[in-house]
Write a structure and sequence with these properties.
By secondary structure, the chain is an alpha+beta fold. The chain contains seven helices and 15 strands. Residues 110-217 form the Guanylate cyclase domain.
Length: 265
């Protein structure tokens, strides 16, 4: 059974992180898929991978063995092109202990970064009193849309907002709604979304994924919503979200190059 481990946010020689694994097996004209969150411990030949919760499973019946073989080859090719590495050895079933869960508190989230374009010039033009009033309306609009989309506000930084969502469609819907809401205030924003793991340490959320999200947002122009390839992979066919390829970019301070997509409509 070919198996693949998600890479990109974390380097493969790092121990003690959560990631995603994907497996495929063909039997005659049927293809059996299995995927889900995993914990990775150790490095190199001594690396061990565990399912952190029960994986999802799906059976695809292709009608003929040749179609099943073609389906399997195409599925494997997609994983190789989407920041997965071949995984050797088994993926073991293991329930993390309560003590370990309390210590790590790691989670996967859709991370949204919002930033006002040209805020310094706007503040200088309006003056402190009017700008303070506009910012009050701005944060009220942001929190209203976050609540509607079931997003979680993490932190505000000046005129920026960082929030998390459980589903990519919710994050993208919130981003597009925010674009419309702030225009009534005479503001333009840029938005970036990324999917990645974060860790709660000392009551604060930390992780490279937040920095990647910030860099994705920085690539957006006024009125644009950009998402990383990690977000695109999580969007289901039923989500009816239109994305346009925005090219491959180098994100400041982040390993490798990342393909970004612009939300259309």
């Amino acid at each position: 059974m070919p198996k693949f481990l998600r890479i990109g946010v974390h380097q493969s020689n790092v121990s003690g992180y959560t990631s995603k694994a994907w497996c495929v097996r063909r039997v005659g004209s049927a293809v059996f898929l299995k995927w889900g969150a995993v914990e990775v411990h150790g490095a190199g030949d001594g690396r061990k991978v565990y399912w952190s919760r029960l994986p999802q499973e799906k059976t695809v019946r292709c009608g003929t063995a040749q179609r099943a073989q073609d389906y399997t080859k195409a599925a494997i090719a997609r994983r190789r092109n989407h920041r997965y590495e071949p995984l050797t050895g088994p993926i073991a079933n293991r329930r993390p202990s309560a003590a370990r869960s309390a210590e790590l508190k790691q989670a996967l989230a859709i991370i949204l970064i919002v930033d006002i374009v040209g805020s310094t010039a706007k503040a200088a033009k309006l003056g402190d009193a009017r700008w303070t009033k506009v910012m009050g309306h701005y944060y009220a609009a942001v929190r209203k849309e976050l609540k509607s989309a079931r997003g979680k506000e993490v932190v505000t930084t000046g005129d920026g907002v960082l929030a998390t969502f459980k589903k990519p469609a919710a994050g993208i819907a919130c981003a597009t709604a925010l674009q419309q809401a702030v225009r009534t205030l005479g503001l333009e924003i840029r938005v970036g979304l990324h999917a990645g793991e974060y860790t709660i340490s000392g009551g604060e959320m930390v992780g490279l994924a937040f920095h990647i999200g910030t860099r994705v947002a920085a690539k957006a122009r006024a009125g644009e919503v950009l998402v990383s390839s990690a977000v695109k992979e999580l969007i289901t066919a039923q989500a009816a979200i239109s994305l346009r390829d925005h090219g491959v970019h180098r994100l400041k301070g982040v390993p490798e190059r990342w393909r970004l997509y612009r939300v259309e409509g």
